[in-house]
Request: fold
Amino acid sequence: MKVEELYQEIILDHYRSKHHSGLREPYQAEVQHVNPTCGDEVRLRVHLVGDTVSDVSYESVGCSISQASTSVMADLVIGHDVAHGLGLYEEFLTMMQGKGQIEPNEERLEDGIAFAGVAKFPARVKCALIGWSAFRDAIIQARAQ
Amino acid sequence: MSLDGGPEYPVTTDLSDVAPGSLALVEEPIAFDVEAIRADFPILERTVGGTPLIYLDSANSSQKPRVVVEAVEDHYLNHNANVARAMHMLGAEATEAFEGARAQLAQFIGAHRSEEVVFTKNASEALNLCAYTLGASLRPGDEIVISVMEHHSNIVPWQLLAQRTGAVLRWFDVTDEGRLDLDKAVAEGLLNERTKIVSIAYVSNVLGTINPISQIAALGHAVGATVVVDASQAVPQLAVNMADLGADLVAFTGHKMVGPTGIGVLWGRYELLAALPPFLGGGEMIEVVTMAGSTYAPPPHRFEAGTPPIAQAVGLSAAAQYLSVIGMNQITAHEREITGYALEGLQSLPGVTVLGPNELVDRGGAVSFTLTAADQQPIHPHDVSHLLDSRGIAVRAGHHCARPLHERFGVQSSTRASFYLYTTRAEIDALIESLDYTIAFFGRLR
Reply:
């Protein structure tokens, strides 16, 4: 796979205008995740109403892959069950660890399937996961309260 | 070329019995031939997906000439044993090789005596050694002065020391051009009677700035401070003479100067080293150990607890020898020429902003920059480096272990190209062409 193919329109669109970006109130948990090797940083908040993820808001700096992936994640989890969001996290993680051998489920991951190619570039897997890991971490903290 | 007498350069085979200073005799001016030098580095023949490798990340870690790898191999295959404690033939050979490497390094950096050379595992350990041992006499309210352009390895050890002792950490700012802001420091009274330690990089790993070490050392000494220098980016590129530099302690690393990983050097004025307490405890660094207490070996062994990096020292010695034979002045000149050519090329590209000095005055061979597409959208360094990598070009992307400096310049990260004795103009041309392509690629898709 050529690296140019990695940068699909979907990824660059999300990078250009990140969905759900910005920190909002109310929130139950806020986490900060960094990738010390390249300096990507995300501060992310979640707000739960019952079992529903009512909001995910974030402030982040980083490469196109990390920014677009966080944007896609927010699209996919807001307004859904916590269990659904955590399930998608597992699916996305499996895809990213699959070295490009795993056929993603488009019905569930939607724009997230654009990142299937990233799994072929080990150095970029962390980029694609940073927002998702922050989301999972924030959910765990919010639930612990 | 080879160190046992290749056709290109006059060399001596064994420097262990060469008197200090006499290395200059074999350093006859010879034409600097970058193609002949490249032939010494087998890794430069590699390709990336069919295109030749273009390695522009030497400030991160340099490549190794065959002679260095062979010196390490020869040591392991023919002379390996522990040093200073094995009373047999191989033990004697290993000890001679290790101490011979120390003498070679001392000569390379212009130390007065080889006991001023302490082997560590890297520059970070050398700087931690400084912080730990100098810190033993710090009191609350004492001040430590660093700069905002330091590598994390010359920031964090001092932060830890300040936390342990109640000392205050202060720092030089930089000007927008990327020079140490000495005027501001004077106006602020940065150096004063409370200053006990000043620790500054000789050459910035991000900006390439060469700092006026002798001037800073004089300022530090005027207030009675000990002056530490992080010379990790300087020793590979510049002829550094410790006796003239004016500093008290100087750290650098082997792997950036065509030597092996796993070895660094701390040079110190002997009287100072002799007055410092031990750093790590263990074998090798002691004189007499009883259950009630111990006495310690004199420098340098006081600071070398445990089995040291023996084979790495042998490799580093071969590296110093290799650089000496080519001539540090010629390496500096080549680095300047290539850096100037790269700065010219980068400034010809719309959308490139160079961090640090734009001109070749007091400037080393690391060039960091940011990139924006035609629509003014920034192109993230991680995306830049990935696209360059796919075209065979290795650069570094991120904050280069200097996050505070990036913050100072208002950028989250940058792309860095860095050069060395084997870098060619054609490689710079390829970099510029690929950056042009990168700008177009990210601009077009938007």
Q: What stands out?
A: The longest strand of chain B covers residues 195-201.
